[in-house]
Amino acid sequence: MKHSDVNEVAKIWSNAFPKPFASNISESKKLIKKVLKENKELCFVAVEKKDIIGFVMGYKFSGDIVSLGPIAVKREYRGKGVGKALVKKFEKASKNMKYSAILLTTRYIGETNEERKYEASLFYERLGFKEVAKSKKKRIYFKRI
Ligand SMILES: CC(C)(COP(=O)(O)OP(=O)(O)OC[C@H]1O[C@@H](n2cnc3c(N)ncnc32)[C@H](O)[C@@H]1OP(=O)(O)O)[C@@H](O)C(=O)NCCC(=O)NCCS
């Protein structure tokens, strides 16, 4: 990811969720800029025909544990393996940097399939992450790499 990608990436992030969960674009831009500045080697975009269609970012959590997120794929490109490819890229980069586990949080809405479709929890479970805890608002996932 380059600094010139920040506006497009922030747009994708602020549009990533349906209305009640959407984030503010200027807040998104601030977050993306900060994470990119401090962790360039853990930030990637997915590109199709020169357009950015998704991204992943991360930063050191503690010791040999890296934190993954934010991550998002443009709506019209979801379900085609782009998110999975971004997580794989992130895992590879993290491993090369000698991290040995990934931690991430995702929103907790509920246990039914209807509620979980507003979460990314099933996506992470498909990619081998295990839920290790949950609060009223968040699920925490972990994966050794
Ligand atoms: C979560 C997100 C990044 C997934 O990206 P994607 O490109 O659609 O995911 P992929 O097509 O690579 O899917 C990978 C696997 O997860 C599964 N999966 C993805 N989203 C899923 C969902 N909502 N429910 C169930 N399974 C899902 C796919 O079926 C696929 O399984 P397979 O490997 O067995 O075929 C994307 O939906 C998104 O941007 N969501 C909004 C932002 C968001 O929630 N970010 C995470 C915040 S913590």
What does this structure look like?
It contains 5 helices and 6 strands, in the order ααβββαβααββ. The chain is α+β, with helices and mostly antiparallel strands and 145 residues long. The protein has one domain: Aminopeptidase, CATH 3.40.630. β2 and β3 form a beta hairpin. α1 crosses α2. The longest helix is centred in the middle third of the chain and has 15 residues. The protein is globular. The protein starts with 5 loop residues before the first helix and ends with a strand. The mean pLDDT is 94. The protein binds coenzyme A. Coenzyme A binds next to β3, α3 and α5.
Total strand count, please?
6
State the CATH superfamily name. Answer: Gcn5-related N-acetyltransferase (GNAT)
Main sheet overview: 6 strands, mixed
Strand order of the largest sheet: 1-2-3-4-6-5
| SS-based class | alpha+beta
**The top level CATH class name:** Alpha Beta
- Roughly how many Å apart are the termini? 22 Å
Output the radius of gyration.
Answer: 15 Å
- The helix/strand series, from N terminus to C terminus, equals HHEEEHEHHEE
Task: Indicate the CATH topology.
Answer: Aminopeptidase
Low-confidence stretches: none
Total number of helical segments? 5
Number of domains in the coordinates?
1
Mean pLDDT: 94
Helical percent range?
A: 25-40%
Strand content: 25-35%
CATH hierarchy: architecture: 3-Layer(aba) Sandwich
Shape: globular
Q: What is bound: which ligands?
A: coenzyme A
